[in-house]
């Protein structure tokens, strides 16, 4: 089940939301510094992050689910938001070069089907970034933030899900080590928590960020195809 817009808005307006958004933006900027001339789709609630590429990408779209709700975005401009189900995206095959999933996979009722739909709408060689709550981190176990809802993933689980749905993992990062408590003095030390967490307990970050590439299997040639094997009955001589 997806969190509603009111819940997401309240989170991103809070100190915890600001701290999380800053960490996520830094990770996304590091993976995709430029999407000049490419098409981009944001799934879940990616709108806080799509402005990173809004002025450079050839086309930017966002999609929300009916249970989450949708509104026009960007404000004051022609809306780039569509509404649909993650298991039946309202886009043509190979429509996008990049897909960003935030507040999406952990809320999907059918994660494998959702990932297969992402595969369908990505062009050959297209890339995907998924941001999910880390199963071992504190953020996944406190319901006061959107990352405490839905199904969290370990780094290994996320890699295996991607591989099973014909994606090749390229890079993985664990971010957001600061505890998810709404204390401003604590949240001001995000960088210190990040440095300490990476050094002392790298597996207990709040979020997992994975970049993967769409895998396209080449058809077998006649020479490569497995030979047909026939069973021949053995007849004993009389």
Look up the CATH topology: Rossmann fold
Beta strand %? 15-25%
* Dominant shape: globular
The largest pleated sheet is described as: 7 strands, mixed
Describe what this molecule looks like in 3D:
- It contains six helices and seven strands, in the order H-H-E-E-E-E-H-E-H-E-H-H-E.
- The protein is of the alpha/beta class.
- Helix 3 (111-121) links the parallel strand 4 and strand 5.
- It has helices spanning 5-12, 15-31, 111-121, 155-164, 184-187, 190-200, and strands spanning 39-44, 59-64, 81-83, 96-102, 122-133, 167-175, 207-214.
- It is globular.
- It has a seven-stranded mixed beta sheet, sandwiched between helices.
- The protein has one domain: Vaccinia Virus protein VP39 (Rossmann fold), CATH 3.40.50.150.
Which characteristics define this entry?
alpha/beta; disordered C terminus; 21% strand
Describe the structure concisely:
The chain is an alpha/beta fold. It is built from six helices and seven strands; from the N terminus they run H-H-E-E-E-E-H-E-H-E-H-H-E. The model is unreliable at 219-238 (pLDDT under 50).
């Amino acid at each position: 089940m997806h969190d509603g817009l009111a819940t997401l808005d309240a989170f991103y307006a809070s100190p915890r939301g600001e701290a999380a958004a800053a960490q996520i933006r830094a990770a996304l900027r590091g993976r995709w510094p430029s999407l000049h001339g490419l098409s981009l789709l944001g799934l879940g609630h990616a709108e806080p992050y799509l402005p990173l590429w809004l002025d450079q990408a050839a086309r930017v779209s966002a999609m929300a689910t009916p249970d989450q709700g949708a509104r026009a975005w960007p404000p004051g401009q022609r809306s780039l938001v569509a509404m649909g189900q993650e298991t039946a995206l309202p886009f043509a095959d190979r429509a996008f070069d990049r897909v960003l999933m935030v507040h999406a996979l952990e809320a999907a009722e059918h994660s494998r089907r959702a990932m297969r739909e992402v595969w369908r709408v990505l062009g050959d060689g297209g890339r995907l970034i998924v941001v999910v709550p880390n199963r071992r981190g504190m953020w996944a176990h406190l319901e006061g933030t959107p990352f405490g809802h839905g199904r969290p993933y370990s780094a290994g689980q996320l890699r295996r899900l991607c591989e099973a749905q014909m994606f090749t993992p390229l890079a993985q990062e664990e971010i957001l080590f600061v505890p998810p408590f709404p204390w401003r003095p604590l949240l001001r030390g995000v960088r210190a928590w990040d440095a300490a967490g990476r050094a002392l307990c790298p597996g207990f970050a709040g979020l997992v960020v994975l970049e993967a590439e769409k895998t396209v299997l080449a058809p077998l040639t006649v020479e490569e195809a497995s030979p047909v094997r026939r069973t021949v009955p053995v007849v004993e001589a009389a």
